[in-house]
Specification:
The structure is a homotrimer of 347-residue chains.
Chain A lengths: L2 E2 H7 L3 E3 L5 E2 L1 E2 L9 E4 L6 H6 L4 E5 L9 E4 L2 H15 L7 E2 L4 E2 L4 E2 L4 E2 L4 E2 L4 E2 L4 E2 L4 E2 L4 E2 L4 E2 L4 E2 L3 E3 L4 E2 L4 E4 L4 E4 L2 E4 L5 E4 L4 E2 L4 E3 L5 E4 L4 E2 L4 E2 L4 E2 L4 E2 L4 E2 L4 E2 L4 E2 L4 E2 L4 E2 L4 E2 L4 E2 L8 E3 L4 E2 H12 L1 H25 L1
Parallel strand pairs in A: 4-5, 5-6, 6-7, 8-11, 9-12, 10-13, 11-14, 12-15, 13-16, 14-17, 15-18, 16-19, 17-20, 18-21, 19-24, 20-25, 21-26, 24-27, 25-28, 26-29, 27-30, 28-31, 29-32, 30-33, 31-34, 32-35, 33-36, 34-37, 35-38, 37-39
Antiparallel strand pairs in A: 1-3, 2-7, 22-23, 39-40
């Protein structure tokens, strides 16, 4: 990466205010940005954040000024920013060459798109479909009839079982297993009989899935991960779960069977959600929370069992002060006893 | 799958009451069943559940009637039901052909049973034994001297380290590691010295193990998973743990070293159990609970630290009402102060 | 292993007191030791523990006596003990032979040290470096430019992505992924744009990493695991985390991005630490705790949100007694009401 602020201004047809010589080495939000990072300000209410930001340059709306900062004025800062990110991502050449490695085993009736890269010891089973420009690193496994869209990136040691559908531009990190059997049994006289799990998994476009994640196939139907949703490492998604679009599912979260999660939902790290719930659009679940009831759209919950955020904070504040309250109770007991004694005398 | 209710009645030698034409596409419990599912009623006390069930047909005891439902009367509904499940499971042909793929590397002194299927890039190390009819998918690894029984199903990317014993009809999902070293160190002057972990792991018959599970080998002796126990995804089982028969260990549970778990125990999702405990037969541990004390047979616990279920519910109800109680305390303080003031005047 | 107590006494130049004939089969701490184990006593204050220990023989300082126990007197019990552990570890011959398996794919410009063992279907990418005497089991993947030091042990199915640095004598168990992308996005108009993750991971000497662990690469810079730190199974370590030397990170712990952990820290099982915190040297975090604030050196915390240990115990004791306190409050309300009634009469 050798790109200056001036180069970026040109790339996004923006108006540079300040020196264009600094080299930009990455992109980040205003808070996380460091020297050498490009950031952006779309909403004027975040101007104070922009003033404190350490970013090397900030994309801002036309007409805006930010004293003392190097800025690039554009019509649409957020779209311009995503254009720069795309530029950075494309700039890093893939570590795998286009072509099919001679040790890759590809079934004769699999369909392989143009310009794919398929690494050593990869296995593509019968009737699988690999879209144009998709990269599949070493040792990964694509099962029978599984379809992977165009422009995907599959890292080493990924398992895609049979009859999985993966959209376009999906990234799947190493060790992840998609399409393992759902955990379903009927108990007959103390023995757990396996219920056949014959459904599939649908991963929509622009999803990213971290390392060592597990996503089970549905009993019938589909387990679904919606467009643009980003899943962190070691997450468990049970059979028949539906996750909406543009959600953030942070590391080590577990979602039980048949739960339906809306769009733009955030589940923070190590949270657990029981089965057969509905989590509304835009809901936020705090870290380590245990969700046992459905959540309305926009609801924010925390704790085990999860409560609405305000109540949870109040409850937690009370818990931290329990020692204090117990002292009050003990003191009250003495004072009431004292009053009762006096009262008895007066009778 | 093309099997009608009438076909099923014939398969299990039952008496059909109602139309036999509907096609049955799956099996499920009364609650979970949907149109097209077969279910069963073994215990007459669940008759109300059977009446509400959406199952396409229900196996019931001889002489029972269920108005408005398609039923099949049999001598033993639960056994007949498991016979149908077996039928369904066998009906799905395996996606791997009997035979040994030419890229599978099998040690000369390994013993391979009849009618096995061993997929591409599978490795079977020296002195390993693979039982009759076992299927091992691509990329899996069977270590030195490890014995896998008959009729097992090992999915892609499974690691069975050395000296592991796997029973009959065991299913192991992708990414699972069995026989990694136990987490054992002695701290000598601030440095953690590794204690050799030279024991094994025993997986008994009819166990199913989910994806990306880790089961450590014992220091000496064996880590043991009892017959018929079903383990969900991303579960951690430490060295020297013993799990009894027919347990359900739900996703992301962690069990610390040397803990002994009885038969028919249920550990719900994300629960943790500390080391060197004894969990009695039939115990139930709620989701996300932290178990720090042994549990008697039949005990049901919840919370962190885990309490008996009734106490946990009571405690939790109190916690939810803390704000209310604190208001009471504050009000009491005022009222007592008022009484004290009056009392002081009266003196 | 056939080594007697007398052999061990000779190996470490110690003075045997008691019979030297018993065969020693393992090493363990005083508490965990069983018959046949060797243990050690470095600090005289643990003498009571030594007296109760079931160890077959105990290394003790010169001049010490332990009535009824077989002991070996040495100048430095802890160092002598680690010498014996080394002896035991070396005694177990590796299950992989020195040499490069013909199916291993090694880039022409990779540098491979002397006396390495590289198993079947291993992939070593371009510019990778493998140190002398390192063993890499079947199916593992070493990415572009990744450097693995001397004397390491990499089990089957490990993924080391590109530009990772692994020190000397590091052990990495199966299914572990090092160098997956950090979980970093900027949300632009409701869509999560991926921020390039172009940093690396540094694993220092003598680290051991369990099975199915995930350690993400930094955005820039390095995610770092310090010398001698031991990580259990299914642990998640996010991008830009720094872990100090000689820490113990127990199974299923999750550490969020950019958190800095000192030396000799213990994080017990299933604990979670939020991002951008500082955890001081020697801190201890209890199992399942949720750490949301930085911890000073030597701090011990427990619970969610984590409190200092004493407060957490007090809080927890109060919580267990809530039912009792609520009864007190209800009783107080009655008594105060009674007093108020009498008071009203007296007015």
């Amino acid at each position: 990466m050798h790109i200056t602020i001036a180069d970026i201004a040109q790339l996004i047809e923006g108006e540079l205010v300040g020196s264009g010589q600094m080299e930009i080495t990455g992109c980040a939000g205003l808070k996380e940005a460091r020297e050498g990072d490009l950031s952006f300000l779309a909403n004027p209410k975040y101007e104070p954040l922009a003033k404190e930001s350490k970013a090397g340059a900030i994309l801002v709306p036309r007409q805006m000024a930010l004293a003392g900062k190097t800025i690039i004025r554009v019509n649409h800062p957020s779209l311009a920013f995503s254009k720069v990110i795309d530029h950075f991502l494309k700039d890093a050449p893939p570590l795998i060459s286009v072509g099919i490695h001679p040790t890759a085993l590809i079934a004769k009736d699999a369909k392989i798109g143009k310009n794919v890269a398929i690494g050593p010891y990869v296995i593509i089973e019968s009737k699988a479909v690999i879209g144009e420009g998709t990269l599949i690193y070493a040792h990964s496994y694509v099962g029978h009839g599984t379809r992977v869209g165009a422009g995907c990136l599959i890292y080493p040691h990924v398992t895609l079982r049979e009859k999985i559908s993966v959209g376009k531009r999906v990234i799947i990190h190493s060790g992840t297993v998609i399409g393992s059997d759902g955990y379903g049994y009927v108990t007959v006289e103390g023995r757990h009989m396996k219920i056949p799990q014959v459904g599939g998994v649908v991963i929509e476009d622009d999803v990213e899935i971290g390392a060592n994640v597990t996503i089970d196939r549905a009993r019938f139907d589909q387990t679904t991960i919606g467009e643009g949703t980003k899943i962190d490492n070691l997450v468990q998604i049970a059979h028949n779960v539906t996750i909406g679009k543009h959600c953030l599912i942070v590391a080590q979260v577990g979602i039980s069977g048949s739960t339906q999660i809306g769009n733009h939902v955030i589940l923070a790290g190590q949270a657990g959600v029981v089965g057969h719930l509905t989590i509304g659009d835009g809901a936020v679940v705090g870290a380590q929370s245990g969700v046992s009831k459905s959540i309305k759209s926009g609801g924010q919950v925390f704790g085990t069992p999860a409560q609405p955020l305000r109540e949870a904070f109040k409850t937690n504040a009370h818990i931290q002060r329990l020692d204090h309250y117990v002292q009050w109770i003990q003191e009250l007991r003495k004072r009431v006893e004292e009053l009762e004694k006096k009262d008895a005398k007066n009778d």
